[in-house]
């Protein structure tokens, strides 16, 4: 059975993007990126909303971009090897292999996917993750807390749920990023 993991960079004040939608302040440097690569190897399926998918689909062809760094090429290979499900009412076609579109988020279908999966499943993007959190589907939260305060934007967590957590792991990186890994208590 796979776990459903919600993992993203977040500002210190809890936002994954600022009021203008920018998230470049969360860009990963080599040490963090190599750690993310290691974590990402356990993922067999990624669940995306349309906007997050449109950001992440870059990795489908990243290996063709000149002067990619080895850790970036590694992430591209890992990402290309995963299945992707994009939840969108507007997207008409996908731009990556191993990808399908679902029109609505169905908690029961995700429960079934978790039960049948040998690998973990990642839910990416705060809006889609909010649906999974509200449905009680997220088993693990991985926050990459970035040393920046952005003052607003898209919050990492929805504001209308409570989930009791226990700290499973933590790590500090040289650039000031702090990784926090929490599991759902009980």
Automatic annotation (TrEMBL):
Where's the Bacterial bifunctional deaminase-reductase C-terminal domain? Answer: 3-179
In terms of Gene3D superfamilies, this protein maps to:
Dihydrofolate Reductase, subunit A (3.40.430.10)
- Spell out the InterPro entries in the cross-references: DHFR-like_dom_sf, RibDG_C, Riboflavin_Biosynth_HTPR
A GO BP annotation = riboflavin biosynthetic process
Pfam families to which the protein is assigned, alphabetical: RibD_C (PF01872)
Gene Ontology molecular function, alphabetical: 5-amino-6-(5-phosphoribosylamino)uracil reductase activity
Name of protein: Dihydrofolate reductase
Q: Which species is the source of this protein?
A: Kribbella caucasensis
């Amino acid at each position: 059975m796979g776990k459903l993991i919600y993992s993203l960079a977040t500002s210190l004040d809890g936002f994954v993007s600022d009021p203008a939608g920018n998230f470049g302040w969360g860009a990963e440097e080599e040490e963090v990126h190599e750690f993310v690569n290691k974590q990402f190897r356990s993922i067999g399926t990624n669940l995306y909303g349309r906007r997050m998918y449109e950001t992440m689909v870059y990795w489908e062809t990243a290996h063709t971009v000149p002067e990619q760094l080895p850790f970036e090429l590694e992430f591209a290979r890992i990402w290309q090897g995963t299945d992707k499900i994009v939840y969108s009412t507007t997207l008409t076609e996908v731009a990556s292999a191993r990808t399908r579109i679902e029109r609505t988020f169905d908690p029961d279908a995700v429960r079934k996917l978790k039960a049948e999966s040998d690998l973990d499943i990642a839910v990416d993007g705060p809006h889609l993750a909010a649906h999974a959190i509200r449905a009680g589907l997220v088993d693990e939260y991985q926050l990459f807390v970035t040393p920046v305060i952005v003052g607003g934007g898209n919050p990492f967590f929805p504001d209308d749920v409570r989930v009791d957590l226990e700290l499973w792991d933590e790590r500090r990186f040289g650039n000031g990023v702090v990784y926090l890994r929490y599991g759902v208590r009980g």
